[in-house]
């Protein structure tokens, strides 16, 4: 099946439930992204700043770019002019950097707080208590150019569907609590980004509003190494 055919299948299934489909285009060539674009897809997710910057310059300007990978503070300035949503925000320090760069670009950048829900070692993600601590922090209250629109989580890499269901459900319950406690009057706080190719159906059942699907749309990834990676300067 073609990219367009794959995309049509997923859009029909996912968007009929009111869920946003993020086509994960990391390592995919511009031609493949353009094929998906021409088939009606407008939201694309990238893991690496350098790759997203290069593609944004070459592709239609009505594309909604989501940064779904881990973001280093020294790379924020490169995507601040155009990024629509940053999924993996896992510290107040990163939020402060995004806020600073957003102000420079006279924008407000939407962000999701990444919550650690998996039963495995990972470098990234806030604990439930850390999310609450961050939202109560006086320094957080000073940020005017970022907007927290929801939470993001990645389930354990396992075939145990019961475990995945529990993890997604825990995030949804936590989201509901955070909504009531901190964002009761904020209509923008409505997104839960969970679910990838292997577990998106469970994610949707457990309240996800965004799913991230890549190779099932585009086919096998082409690994590309960026020799001239953006520096820390």
TrEMBL record:
The keyword Zinc does not apply. Keywords: Pyridoxal phosphate. Its cofactor is pyridoxal 5'-phosphate. Residues 3-220 form the Alanine racemase N-terminal domain. The keyword Lyase does not apply. It comes from the Bacteria. CDD domains: PLPDE_III_YBL036c_like. SUPFAM superfamilies: PLP-binding barrel. InterPro entries: Ala_racemase_N, PLP-binding_barrel, PyrdxlP_homeostasis. The modification N6-(pyridoxal phosphate)lysine is found at residue 26. GO terms for molecular function: pyridoxal phosphate binding. Pyridoxal 5'-phosphate (PLP)-binding protein, which is involved in PLP homeostasis. Belongs to the pyridoxal phosphate-binding protein YggS/PROSC family. PANTHER family: PROLINE SYNTHETASE CO-TRANSCRIBED BACTERIAL HOMOLOG PROTEIN (PTHR10146), PYRIDOXAL PHOSPHATE HOMEOSTASIS PROTEIN (PTHR10146:SF14). This is Pyridoxal phosphate homeostasis protein. It comes from Pedobacter miscanthi.
């Amino acid at each position: 099946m073609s990219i367009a055919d794959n995309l049509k299948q997923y859009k029909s299934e996912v968007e009929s439930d009111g869920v946003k489909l993020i086509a994960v285009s990391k390592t995919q060539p511009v031609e493949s992204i353009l094929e998906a674009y021409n088939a009606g897809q407008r939201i694309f997710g990238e893991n690496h700043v350098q790759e997203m910057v290069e593609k944004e310059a070459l592709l239609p300007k009505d594309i909604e770019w989501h940064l779904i990978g881990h973001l280093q503070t020294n790379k924020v300035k490169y995507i601040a002019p155009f990024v629509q949503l940053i999924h993996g925000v896992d510290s107040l320090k990163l939020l402060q950097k995004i806020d600073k760069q957003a102000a420079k670009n006279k924008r407000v950048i939407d962000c999701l707080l990444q919550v650690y829900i998996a039963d495995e070692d990972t470098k990234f993600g806030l604990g439930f208590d850390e999310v609450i601590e961050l939202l109560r922090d006086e320094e957080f209250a000073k940020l005017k150019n970022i907007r927290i629109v929801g939470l993001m989580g990645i389930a354990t890499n396992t075939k145990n569907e019961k475990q995945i269901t529990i993890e997604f459900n825990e995030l949804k319950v936590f989201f509901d609590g955070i909504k009531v406690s901190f964002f009761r009057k904020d209509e923008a706080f409505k997104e839960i980004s969970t679910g990838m190719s292997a577990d998106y159906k469970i994610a949707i059942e457990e309240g996800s509003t965004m799913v991230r699907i890549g190779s099932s749309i585009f086919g096998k990834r082409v690994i590309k190494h960026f020799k001239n990676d953006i520096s820390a300067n």
